Amino acid sequence: MLINKMRTLIKVMFADGKGILAMDESNSTCNERFIELGIPATEENRRAWRELILTTPNLHQGIGGVILFDETVYQQQHHGAAFLQILRENNILFGIKVDKGLQSLALHPSEKVTSGLDGLRARLNTYAGLGAVFTKWRAAISITESLPTLACIETNADALARFAALSQEAGLVPVVEPEVMMSGTHNIERCQQVTTQFLLSVFRHLNQQEVVLEAIILKPNMILPGADCSMQADTDIIANKTIACLLETVPAAVPVIAFLSGGQSGDLASTRLNAMNLKDNRHANTPDGSINQQQTLPWQLAFSFSRAIQIPAIQVWSGVPERKKAAQDAIYRRVCDNQRARRGVYHQLPESPVGRAVTATQKQ
To answer: What does the pLDDT read at residue 295?
Structure first.
């Protein structure tokens, strides 16, 4: 019964081209973004920023779910209405980031493992009682000439699977996020190799834990060259390599693949998602009526973006209350762009040097 309910919730969350808005950055990460823009790093400013996002007019038209950080779950609007009430009134489902962040992997000081399994069962029951319907756990691994090690891949894959099993036990849909990070000088082939190895390990561990794949959401990276790689790839190559990797590693039972943006600009993330959906003949009709490619993918390709939606808006807002509407307009534009990308009808505007990247390390 719980599994059927979870499967239904996934369908609702991603209906009509919708996706997930990730706003689960930790307080320290949120504060870092504020400091970069000259915004005082206070709890009140974090609350005001999250209120701005959640009260964006018509957000529900393109967002079926939001991922919250623990602090956000208990916050309220300035006039006292709880954030969770806003979500309920707009029929937006909410989930929680339940991992406790990255720590050094024992005997592998250059690599990280995600912590948070201790006490997770009790925390999941608390969040379920508050009305959460899904959870998220992020495992992040980096690529160098010698990394990642097998120990890093296997340890993180095991933790992801144990998190997913505990979530389903509590009746919560697990968002499984195995991220191969963009930072580095590696080429796109190396990213594909490592991502393939990581995903194969993740699904092996999910099967060992008897996690029901029909009731999970996979949140992987796209296949991209490292941000500092001298040979960047065009959109079509990225789309082809990402789909090839997923077809090799992700069982057809998984209903939705909701990509992370991972430091890509909003335009690039939308353009690349659009290109992948054009490879699926459910969306392959181009504006002139031609067919790009005859192929039906077994899963929906969606988005679970954070920075690619938030960064343009926070730059507009910059902590100034009078800029709230302009910032909300920026959020809504990006949400609509990603909704169009899910349908294969997004058309990127000409890039500018400012809009070309979210992070200074991203090169094109």
So the answer is: 76
71 carries an active-site annotation: no
* Residue of 16, 96, 115, 28 lying closest to 64 (CA atoms): 16
Q: Widest CA span of the chain, in angstroms?
A: 57
Nearest to 361 by CA among 237, 232, 243, 250: 232
Q: Is the pLDDT of residue 309 over 60?
A: yes
DSSP string computed for 138-158: EEEE---SS---HHHHHHHHH
Q: Structural domains in the chain?
A: 2-342 (3.20.20.70)
Take residue 285 and report the two structure tokens written for it. 């009709």
- In the residue annotation, 325 being an active-site residue is answered as no
Cβ atoms within 10 A of the Cβ of 78, count? 10
**What is the value of pTM for the model shown?**
0.92
The DSSP secondary-structure symbol of 82 reads B
Query: Which neighbouring-strand residues pair with 305?
Result: 21
Among 219, 241, 279, 324, which one carries the catalytic annotation?
Answer: 219
Q: Which of 177, 241, 279, 324 is catalytic?
A: 177
What's the pLDDT tens digit per position in 355-364? 333 333 333 2
How far apart CA 22 and CA 253 sit, in angstroms, is 24
How far is it, in rounded angstroms, from Cα 304 to Cα 299? 15
> DSSP 3-state assignment of 113?
strand
Q: What is the pLDDT of residues 242-269, one digit of tens each?
A: 999 999 999 999 999 999 999 999 999 9
Q: Around Cβ 91, how many Cβ atoms within 10 Å?
A: 9
Q: What is the DSSP string of 166-233?
A: HHHHTT-EEEEEEEEPS-SS--HHHHHHHHHHHHHHHHHHHHHTT--GGG-EE-PPP----TT-SS--
Question: What DSSP designation does 348 have?
Answer: P
Q: What pLDDT does residue 362 have? A: 33
